[in-house]
Every structure is written in structure tokens, then in C-alpha cells.
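Proteins fold. Shown next:

***
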Amino acid sequence: MAQWNQLQQLETRYLEQLYHLYSDSFPMELRQFLAPWIESQDWAYAANKESHATLVFHNLLGEIDQQYSRFLQENNVLYQHNLRRIKQHLQSKYLEKPMEIARIVARCLWEEQRLLQTATTAAQDGTTSHPSGTVVTEKQQILEHNLQDIRKRVQDMEQKMKMLENLQDDFDFNYKTLKSQGDNPPNSSPICSELSQDMNGNSQAAATRQKMSQLEQMLSALDQLRRQIVTEMAGLLSAMDFVQKNLTDDELADWKRRQQIACIGGPPNICLDRLETWITSLAESQLQIRQQIKKLEELQQKVSYKGDPIIQHRPALEEKIVDLFRTLMKSAFVVERQPCMPMHPDRPLVIKTGVQFTNKVRLLVKFPELNYQLKIKVIIDKESGDVAAIRGSRKFNILGTNTKVMNMEESNNGSLSAEFKHLTLREQRCGNGGRTNSDASLIVTEELHLITFETEVYHQGLKIDLETHSLPVVVISNICQMPNAWASILWYNMLTNHPKNVNFFTKPPVGTWDQVAEVLSWQFSSTTKRGLTIEQLTTLAEKLLGPCVNYSGCQITWAKFCKENMAGKGFSFWVWLDNIIDLVKKYILALWNEGYILGFISKERERAILSPKPPGTFLLRFSESSKEGGITFTWVEKDISGKTQIQSVEPYTKQQLNSMSFAEIIMGYKIMDATNILVSPLVYLFPEIPKEDAFGKYCRPEAAPEAELGDPCSTIQPYLKTKFICVTPTNSGNTSDLFPMSPRTLDSLMHNEAEANPGPLDSLTLDMELSSDVASPM
């Protein structure tokens, strides 16, 4: 079954996560219209090869034209309009940058696959007795049971209120009838003392005394029912308070923490639909109780007496229910989607000045009467103006559409939300470059800012001010600041769930290796199909902390993670690792997803696992010395005496991988021996996968030779076919430049080259002649 069709069959909570993947950068409508074609393209390859990305992009425009023709035949005016708008948007945004749309589509397709895997795993876990799953399920079942109990008690209270009203009406009718007859009840009953004041002092007949006795019994029953209702209302409000704390302090707080984790690459956060159902149910019950309390006031105004429980307890009940409802409404106003630049969906909470970012707010109380009634305003650093001045932080203005009305139409599930798609930040310029204090203690990538959303609710006579805010964001002015800014986002959300601690980096707390290891693995698993293994993480721990028997519990400071240079290196751990992550995503994603790259492995471990292997066995690992990110391969060979040797080629960087894919480099890599014979030292990928099986499918097929254009009557011989390969001379020095040359040129070069010290083998790119035919004279 096609991936898109499988997604449509998921539960609502997963569909909500699916909706969040798409925006104007890649509209969901286009995904729907062209689902089979989109899934048939290799977007990951296109994201790394501009020529292929250009081809795929133009094919995409052609598919849009074909779909438009179908809608034209069907006379579907709405779809025609939408598709035309989408095409114009894509052309204006990606015509000169086709690799960007390829990366966005590849990311969406990968997130879809993760979503399907999550749903499948959850379905399987539902049939087993997984301890943690049982705890969560039981907790939710208890909460739902409590909500059902509240709804039932509210309905029961409604019935009792009707009984109370009927009983009071009967009493009031009999009282007024008796009063109109001029009868005066005796003063012996304290409950009826109010009635006796309006009666004459004449002796009463037996019939009158009987009526008075009945009236006294009715008033006693009325008083008893009033007291029962007031007592039960107080108990019901206590139950509501308990459930509300479970919702806001536990469930909603857990969701917000999961949102933090998801922002830094952790497991996808569950959607808000279930929470919205629970909170809406509780809010509806609270409003019903509030109406019943108002009804008590009306009844009390009609009939009251000494010791009336309504007079004693109604004000406290009214104050309690209003306070509960206000608190619930304030808690229900949340940031559903944190600020994020569309071109960097895997790195939310980092915003570049002058670049549009998006975010979405939602009210988890789904009242239709509030549709188009709440106007949301966006502000930055509303509450931290004084703090910002003390810290010397920059100040910003929000540009674009910074107000919007919440509605239920824009959301696919009918939730009350507002999505801001066209916001940008501009720095306020001061005399010292925008900062209010030239002695600022924090660098710009450690400054944290809050984006606040505020509105007012008028509902059933109540005015409630609502306010929520984003997680702290880092604002950069140059994209080269992205790595350090992202490191700040990782450190903050890894170590705290405090929602507004903008002074976090004035004294950043330390993290443990267990926390850091999990987050580092997420940086790979969130953008690829594989996280990091225990062995890979151990290698990284050694680079950060040095040799240790057990890294669990070892502490890592913020400076050591991001700011201090590694031992013997001119760059920090995070700068090195972030460039490797970028290298994986842009150049070797498919090989990483296949599990072909061991990546992080110490040289000692590398030698240990390769030494027993036959000659030609090789592995792929990341360079430890390249700041910009590099990848190399190490292989086993035998010298003349039969002794095992481990050889490594000089790492390939992004600059070289722009010219040739890593798979093609591996497939064409040669060593030139002393007799100028080219041999391939790479035979089996560790542990024992034939090189052709692993990398052949990632190499482009060779194009057939083309004849030179000319006189059709003349006989034109084809050009010689050529192929770029990488060659390492066995006696090479530091000849690391890449350039095409023939074997004869290389032979001449090597005979004239002085002997150099042994070290990592450098490679040369050769333009090899693959045909023995002689080219025709020009």
C-alpha cells in the first residue's frame, strides 16, 4: 500500500502530527494530489545533487501541469485555483534553489515513515503487558473515569436543582395562598417565624393549623434539600479541582516536556486532541455548575429564611468555580508549534533576523461560540525588558502579521487555533550595535528570548486575560551562528523544563553523559534512519571526557561541550560533531541509513576489528582531525613479508564530495603500485559485504558515448569514454589536490617526486581512458 494511503488510516492523534509536517514550503494539498509520483522519486539523492534536484523540480512542475489539466476536465475550479497558486509559489521560491525543496520533501517523507513506525509500534505494544505502557494507560483510564464521574454528578445536580425549584414553587404557592386567606400560623416553629410575622393573632382553626403544619414540613424539606445541594456542590468543586490539577500539573506539563524533547530531536510529541477533549469536558461541566450556582441565587432571592444555607455558602461556591474556570482557561492556552524557520524544520527555536518564521497557538477549550472571537497579539521579550537591560541583551521588533484571530476553519481537526506564518524579527539599533549594555556577559548565541502570545476572552460575563509564550529562542543574524545557537537550544531543553529562564546561560548547569549521549543520538535519528550505537557513543564520550571505565554519571560542562577546544585540536567538540551531522545529511545519508558507516570508532578499536580480517576488508569512519567534517576508509593489506598492515586514506571533505559521491569514490578507488599497475584495495565492507553489493546501487550508470556533431556525410568516430577515479600512489607524499590526469602523467609525476615520510595515504583524482579506440583527428 502507498505510504500516503497508510497515513490516512492512522488514528486522529497521529494525523494531527502529520498535519504539522506541512506548511507553505511544501503544501499538504500537493502531497495529496501527487502522492504516487512524489513517493516514486529519490528526494534524498536530489537533496545532495543539484543537477538531479533541478531535473526532479522541473518534473514536479510538469506533474502539476498534468494534474491541473485533469482538474480542468473535471471543472473543479477550487482545485484549479489552489494548484495554480502552489505552482507559482514553488517557482518563485525554488526555481533557483531546487535542492532546498528536495530537502524539504525528503524530510517530510522520512517523518511520515517515522510516524508510521511509531503508530505500528504503539499498536503492537497495546497488545502486550509493557510496564510503562500499563502505567500510562491506567493513569489515563483513571482520569477519564474521574471526568465521567464529574459529568454524571453534574447531571445529577441538574436533576436535584429541578427538584429544588419544584419544591420551592410548591412552597411559595402554598405560602402565598395561606397568606391571602389571612391565616396566621403559630410562632412555635422557628423555621416559619418569617411567615408568622405577616399573620393575625386570632386563634386558628384546626384546618388552618393543619395547613401550617404542612407548610412547615415543606419548608423543612426545602431547607434540607438546599443544604444537601450546597454540600454536594462543594464536594463536586473539590473533585473538579483534583481532576484539573491532574490535567494541568501532570498531563499538560508532561505534554509540554515531551514537546521540549521533540524540539531537540527526541521522539515525536503526541497530539493535543485527547487533552483538548478532556479539558473541554471539564470546562463544560464547570460552566454548568456555575449556572446552577446562579440558579441558587435566583431561588434564594425568591424564598429566604434565617439560617438559609444558600446565603451562607453560595458566595464561596461562586468564587471557587470562577477561579477554577479562569485557571483552566489560562492553562489551556498553549503554543502548539514552537517558532521555527521553514527552511530549517529540524532546528526549531533558532530564528535568524530578517527571515520568516512560523508558530501556532491553540486553545484547548473547544467552544464553538469562541470561533473568531479571540484576537491574538505577538510580542517578544514582554516580561524580560528589565532583565534584558541588565544582561545587555539585544532587543528586537516583530514585523509582519503579528495579530491574528483564532478560528476553527484553518485547523484540520476543528480546533480553536491561530497559525502565524509571516513573522520576522528586526534588531533595534542602538549606539553600541543594538545592545543596551556594552558589557554584556553573554554571547549572542547564549541570549534567550521569549515570544509571548496574548488575548482576552469574554464568556458568560467573565473577562479572562490569556497569555502563553514560546520556549526560549535564540536569535542569530548570520547563518554561520546556527551551530552554536542550536547547541544552546539543546543544552537548555536537555537540562530544564523551566519555561521562562532567559538567564539560563549566566550560570549554565552541568549535564551528565547519560543525558548528553541521548541527545547526541537524537541528532542523528531525527534526521536519518539511524541513531548512534553504544560503541559509537563510547567513542564520543572518550573524546569529550578522556579514557574512563564507565562514563555513566560523568559530568560535562557547557564550556566543554561547546566552547572549549578539544585536546590537541583547534575546535570544540560540538563544532566538529555538528559538521559531521551536516556531512551525513547532505552527502552520505543513504550509506548512513544502510548502516554501512561505523562512523565513530577509535583507532585502537579499528585496528582490533580489522586485523583478523582478510586483505581488502575495509570500514568507513569519520575523521577526527577535520573541523569541517570528513570521512575516510581504512582497509587491511599484506606487505611483501605477509605482515598485516592497516591503511587509511586522507579524509574526504564536503568540497571533494561535491564533485563525486562517496559511493563512486569507493567503487573507483585504486592504489598504484611500484610498477604503475592500478589495483583496488577495497574488496569487502566490514564485516564481509562485497563492495559491489553495498555501493553499486548508489553509483550512476555510465552514459553511452555520443558522436561529435558535424557533417552527417562524414564518418565521425566517438570520443573516448572517460571516468574519474581516485588513486593513491604507494609512495605518495602530500599530494592532496584533486585534478584529472592520465596514468602516463601520473607516472612522470611520481618519478620526479621526492620520497616523503609515511602517513595517511593521499588520493588523486584521475580521468582514466576506458577505451582503446583512437579518437579521430579534429
Summary: Residues 206-263 form the longest helix (58 residues). The chain has a mean pLDDT of 82. The radius of gyration is 37 Å.
